[in-house]
Amino acid sequence: MNYTIALIRGDGIGPEIVGSAVRVLEKVGQKFGHTFTFRDYLMGGCAIDACGTPLPEETVQGCLASDSVLLGAVGGPKWDKNPAALRPEKGLLGIRAALGLYTNLRPAKLYPAFAEECPLRADIVAKGFDLLIVRELTGGIYFGERGRREGKFGPEAYDTEAYSVMEIERIARVAFETAKKRGGKLVSIDKANVLETSRLWRETMHRIGEEYPEVALSDMLVDNAAMQLVRCPSQFDVVVTSNMFGDILSDEASQITGSIGLLPSASLGDGTRGLYEPIHGSAPDIAGQDKANPIATILSAAMMLRYSFGLAAEADAIEAAVDRVLAAGLRTADILGTSNAKPLGCTAMTDAILAVL
Ligand code: NAD
Asked: Residue 315 in contact with residue 309, Cβ under 8 Å?
């Protein structure tokens, strides 16, 4: 198959880590008989410098014309004092909106090699975990009506949470489809004992669930979920939740892996095009020094193969290569932890992954 991938290398370590992922994709292409055509677009600080805007129209059009988008990271101290419209993050929000991305997928997996870095108790760590959070990205309280007014007790502020049936149905379908591609278990997280939006959420999840008899759906209240994530994370496979609950729970889930630097993410909309990026930032402190850890970006590319292109065996091959390299004790400086291994640079880590592939 032939696929066109838009590359947004961005700022800081972005060009280095995206370069590594491109090398891995090219190798997978050779091995499995696919052709990936890469097209480069500017976004973030580099776009502000070159075009006077964090998200040039050419980038939006290029991404819309591609099968999927791989992003490094944007931002850095050079643009920190810019006015809001000229900040690199403006590009991130803009591209998500332009591509109609309403779902965020955040996996959190415990690598046995990093068990010592995991902040949980040894008996919990021993069971391992490998879960995926499906977060609604464009609705709910972050986008609802808000303001200041005069209330019963004087001046007050308010934010409102609203979810339409359509918004819940579409995120439900993504979650069920995702659960089908993984272990077939879906936990929907809400606060249905208090919130009306959560009651609609729960009702809708169960109605859509009838279309997916192969997926086991259960509900959990968000306060319990926050507790269960640290008490017994191995019980989760796929989790689906609203924008705000997902924001909080996905950070909690990344933290318990003990290896935030390894975590990829995906944002999806209707259709198969997605935006894939590591969860870390542009690490300006180590940019251009060949010290960056490319793994989160390489795993983001694996997610692209799995979720946008339906290439599960190819994604498995990349993930297995990363597992093997980490299990063999190879480390970049950021994930040395208690290891006394000699840290590899970005190029050498990529070479090691390619060698296994
Ligand atoms: P950061 O994630 O960039 O860096 C935090 C620390 O982790 C730094 O010490 C950095 O060197 C290290 N680090 C991060 N990724 C690494 C990697 N792959 N390999 C080795 N070390 C790594 O977060 P920050 O310092 O808060 O932000 C730096 C810039 O990145 C800011 O301008 C911020 O706005 C931007 N940012 C961008 C995104 C994005 O593009 N999605 C996300 C978060 C932050």
From this structure: no
Q: How far is the CA of 146 from the centre of ligand 1 (A)?
A: 30
Side-chain half-sphere of 131: how many Cα atoms within 13 Å?
Answer: 31
CA of 283 to the centre of ligand 1 (A): 4
Kindly list the protein residues whose Cβ atom lies closer than 6 A to any atom of ligand 1.
Answer: 13, 17, 73-76, 92, 261, 277, 280-286, 292-293, 296, 334
- pTM, rounded to two decimals: 0.91
The predicted pLDDT at position 260 comes to: 80
pLDDT for 126 equals 93
Atom 38 of ligand 1 has which residue's CA nearest to it? Answer: 281
Which residue stretches of the chain have pLDDT < 50? none
Question: Which residue(s) pair with 216 in the sheet?
Answer: 185
Q: Are 309 and 345 in contact (CB under 8 A)?
A: no
Atom 33 of ligand 1, nearest CA residue: 75
pLDDT at residue 112 in the model = 84
Q: What tens digit of pLDDT does each residue of 297-309 get?
A: 999 999 999 999 9
If residue 17 lies in a helix (H) or strand (E), which one and from where to where?
helix 14-32
End-to-end alpha carbon distance in the chain: 19
Q: Which residues are catalytic?
A: 142, 191, 223, 247, 251
